[in-house]
Amino acid sequence: MPELPEVETIRLGLEKHVIGQKIVQTEGRPGRLFRNNPFGLNSVETELNGKVVTGIERRGKYLWMTLSSTQAITPPRLGDNVLVVHLGMSGQVRVCQEGYDEPLAKNEHLRITFADTQLRFLDPRTFGHLTISALQSGARADRLEIENSKWNENRLIPLALEHIGPDPFEEGWPINQVIAKARRSGRRVKTLLLDQGLVSGIGNIYADEGLYRAHISGTKTGRSLSEEQWKEVLEGCTAAMGEALAVGGTSFDSLYVDIDGNPGYFSRSLNVYGRVGQRCIYCEQIIERTVLDGRSHFYCPGCQQIEYLT
DNA sequence: AGAATCGACCGGTAGC
DNA sequence: TGCTACCGGTCGATT
Question: What is the mean pLDDT of the segment spanning A156-172?
């Protein structure tokens, strides 16, 4: 399940392989992955063909590929169309150097061919998205109702991502404003961490790991936590994601691999996620699993005091 | 109007 | 061997 560290691992791999390369051919499979693209698959192909890749950017779990009509690597401009990619829960991007003429695989939705490299976008469960979107000002995209929303004003963000909140790995991300908003909510902390409009990139694994690191139960309401507790939770999630990124992400099952097909190694460092029945490494109580808002929640009953909501 | 909650979308796979 | 239940990120419908 690709969350921030896994998506960033893929972004780094793509940067290595396709920056400066010219797209010679694009082939897509019509279907659900293009459901949000206003002009359908054809517009994806016409937008990409002949363009040069100038960058691969990321916010939260979304990636986008910036493009240029000339060979020079120039910064993206306001209004430029980019290819936006979301991997859902089973999406993969793979880089190939051979077999260019093989027909599209059953689960392959887009194939981009460069002179000596080919990118393949695979997604068996089709929860992912592929779409073309125009860049707009990051400040305008910011929906946090922040008074001085200057932290992101120099960044260009695809219009399709304007509902996506700040990413803890973005330079100067407004953690205090995120906390202020979270503390006005009656929703559970775990649910708030998964709300990509509040803070982006955190998924089920790193939400549970961050809550465990902060020794705080995800069943508490947003408004019941102090500023300091919220800071510990968010920094716990960020630290877990940073450590995971350093080892190529978490391959909890075989669904996540990087662009070369290699798994990440953080699953062996997880403290609670998927460890139901095993002992907490800190207090030695047995890790439990419950369901919050329809999602799995793993926690240590010794370290994280549960709050039962009526 | 806004906030919160819940089900639908998929198919690989674990468990029976 | 075959069947069913389960899982999760996001969106849209419902409360």
Answer: 90
Is strand C less than 7 A from the beta carbon of A84?
A: no
Q: Which of residues 250-269 of A touch strand B (CB under 7 A)?
A: 253-254
Q: What are phi and psi of A145, to 5 degrees?
A: 60, 40
Residue A310: pLDDT above 50?
A: no
Q: Cβ of A187 < 7 Å from strand B?
A: yes
Going across the sheet that includes A108-113, the strands are A25-28, A108-113, A118-122, A92-96
| Separation in Å: B8 C1' and A209 CA | 28
Strand B nucleotides within a 7 Å radius of protein CB atoms: 3-14
pLDDT in tens, A6-48: 999 999 999 999 999 999 999 998 888 888 887 778 888 999 9
> What are the tens digits of pLDDT across the range A198-256?
999 999 999 999 999 999 999 999 999 999 999 999 999 999 999 999 987 888 776 78
Q: Which of A3, A8, A47, A57 is catalytic?
A: A3
Report CA(A127)–C1'(C4) in Å, whole number. Answer: 22
Would you say the C-beta of A86 is within 7 Å of strand B? no
Rounded Cα–Cα distance for residues A1 and A231 (Å): 25
A172: left (phi over 0), alpha (psi -120 to 50) or beta: left
Contact status, residue A243 vs residue A266, Cβ threshold 8 Å: yes
Top pLDDT among A309 and A215 is at: A215
Contact yes or no for A249/A6 (Cβ under 8 A): yes
Residue A82 banded pLDDT, cuts 50, 70, 90: very high
Taking alpha carbons only, the member of A10, A52, A38, A51 closest to residue A134 is: A38
- Other Cβ atoms less than 10 A from the Cβ of A229: the count is 17
Quickly count: other Cβ atoms within 10 Å of residue A106's Cβ: 8
